[in-house]
């Protein structure tokens, strides 16, 4: 089947209303496709923590004329401080430092989703409370069965869901592999305290527990708790059971644990998940393709997940517009994105074991490393060898369509 960018009868279904799905919708509409976007939830999913936009992701946002809005929604984070049990600073790394996790453009995931939605809300048919229960391909298209038992035919189905995508599993089954990193993560919002400021604070506690406290631009504080553990299905527990698990894990470790325990009890946005990567041998099957976390989840440990989701969506739409055959378009998309995804999925040295020490001595050694790395001598060496750099600089050549 050929592609005519002026053919508004060419119907594409996008499943997933988050960053990849909304970016994909924008560019598909830009190239003339008729787009329907479905989202399982009853509205936009606006929860989540800080994400950063840089490299090819930032280039795409500039092409969408969104840079001013993204900059205006900055979380105000100046950099990261690694702090000891008494809150003294072991090491400090501002946003322009190569060792900092804080990027030039830090934005809350929910704010980003709202900005994207405002850009595309009039460019597609949106259906909430809707998900796919079955798909059937033939030479004329893909028949989709929805959760209300209605059936509809589309020329293409593009899956832009999360790491646990049910639609992806319907199409690709056991070919989807996961790499569990040995870390569980939890995220929630809590009240701002006197110790909170415009710096993110990272604290390593005995027992392979890490606290990450980050500022936002909504007069609250975003909290993350990471802990090493065998894979035990904690993500499947009820919210109440997850709260009990976290409280038991942190209640005796000191630092600001008492405050955080209270915040966990009061939280209405707690999220617990395994930190896993998605490994897929192919990103498409007949008339169906996968993009974003559903195809190549990176995890926060490796970074660049948002960057990759945005760039992947842009490339998938561009290749569909460029090529006269959808199979060729899907293959080109895979050839361009898969090497980049594979490269950014490589974890930094020492992650997770060295970065999440379980013993008191391990914590002391790690804090000593942070102190040395942020010393004046280390800063001199970093600047000498070009370690201070713009985080929006691209390390991937984005195609032009």
Cα end-to-end separation: 20 Å
Low-confidence stretches: 384-393
Structural class: alpha/beta
* Helical proportion, percent range: 25-40%
According to CATH, the homologous superfamily of the largest domain is FAD/NAD(P)-binding domain
Instruction: Return the CATH class of the largest domain.
Output: Alpha Beta
Compute the number of structural domains: 2
Could you describe the largest sheet, including whether it forms a barrel? 7 strands, mixed
- The CATH topology assignment of the largest domain is FAD/NAD(P)-binding domain
Largest sheet: spatial strand order: 5-4-13-14-15-12-16
Question: Would you identify the CATH architecture of the largest domain?
Answer: 3-Layer(bba) Sandwich
Gross geometry: globular
Strand segment count = 18
Radius of gyration: 22 Å
Protein name: FAD-dependent monooxygenase
InterPro entries: FAD-bd, FAD/NAD-bd_sf, FAD_aromatic-hydroxylase
Domain FAD-binding: 10-323
Keywords: Monooxygenase, Oxidoreductase
Features:
401 residues, 12 helices, FAD/NAD(P)-binding domain, globular, oxidoreductase, D-Amino Acid Oxidase, Chain A, domain 2, FAD/NAD-bd_sf, 2 domains, six-stranded mixed sheet, FAD_aromatic-hydroxylase, alpha/beta
Task: Quickly describe the structure.
The chain has helices at about 20-30, 55-65, 65-70, 110-120, 165-170, 240-250, 255-265, 295, 305-320, 325-345, 360-375, 375-385, and strands spanning about 10-15, 35-40, 50, 80-85, 90-95, 105-110, 125-130, 130-140, 140-145, 150-155, 155-160, 175-190, 200-205, 210-215, 220-230, 270-280, 285, 290.
């Amino acid at each position: 089947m050929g592609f005519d960018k002026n053919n508004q009868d060419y119907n594409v279904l996008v499943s997933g209303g988050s960053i990849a799905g909304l970016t994909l919708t924008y560019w598909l509409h830009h190239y003339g496709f008729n787009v329907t976007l479905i989202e399982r939830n009853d509205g936009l999913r606006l929860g989540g923590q800080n994400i950063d936009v840089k490299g090819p992701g930032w280039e795409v946002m500039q092409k969408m004329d969104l840079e001013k809005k993204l900059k205006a929604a900055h979380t105000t984070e100046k950099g990261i401080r690694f702090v000891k049990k008494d809150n003294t600073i072991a090491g400090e790394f501002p946003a322009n430092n190569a060792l900092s996790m804080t990027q030039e453009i830090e934005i809350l995931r929910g704010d980003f989703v709202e900005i994207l939605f405002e850009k595309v809300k009039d460019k597609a048919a949106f259906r909430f409370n809707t998900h796919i229960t079955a798909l059937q391909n033939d030479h004329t298209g893909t028949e989709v069965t929805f959760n209300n038992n209605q059936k509809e035919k589309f020329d293409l189905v593009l899956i832009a869901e999360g790491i646990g995508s049910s639609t992806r599993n319907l199409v690709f089954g056991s070919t989807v592999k996961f790499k569990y990193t040995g870390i569980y993560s939890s995220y929630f919002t809590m009240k701002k305290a006197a110790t909170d400021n415009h710096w993110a604070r990272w604290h390593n506690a005995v027992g392979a527990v890490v606290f990450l406290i980050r500022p936002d631009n909504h007069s609250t504080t975003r909290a993350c708790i990471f802990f090493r553990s065998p894979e035990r299905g904690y993500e499947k527990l009820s919210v109440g059971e997850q709260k009990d698990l976290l409280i038991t894990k942190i209640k005796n470790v000191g630092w600001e644990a008492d405050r955080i325990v209270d915040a966990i009890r009061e939280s209405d946005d707690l999220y617990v998940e395994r930190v896993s990567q998605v490994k897929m041998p192919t990103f498409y099957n007949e008339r169906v393709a996968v993009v974003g976390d559903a195809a190549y989840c990176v995890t926060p440990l490796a970074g660049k997940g948002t960057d990759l989701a945005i760039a992947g969506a842009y490339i998938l739409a561009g290749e569909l517009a460029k090529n006269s055959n959808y199979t060729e378009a899907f293959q080109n998309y895979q050839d361009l994105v898969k090497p980049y995804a594979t490269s950014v999925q490589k974890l930094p040295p020492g992650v997770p074991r060295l970065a999440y020490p379980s013993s008191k001595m391990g914590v002391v050694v790690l804090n000593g490393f942070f102190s040395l790395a942020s010393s004046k001598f280390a800063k001199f060496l970093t600047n000498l060898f070009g370690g201070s750099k713009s985080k929006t600089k691209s390390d991937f050549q984005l195609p032009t369509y």
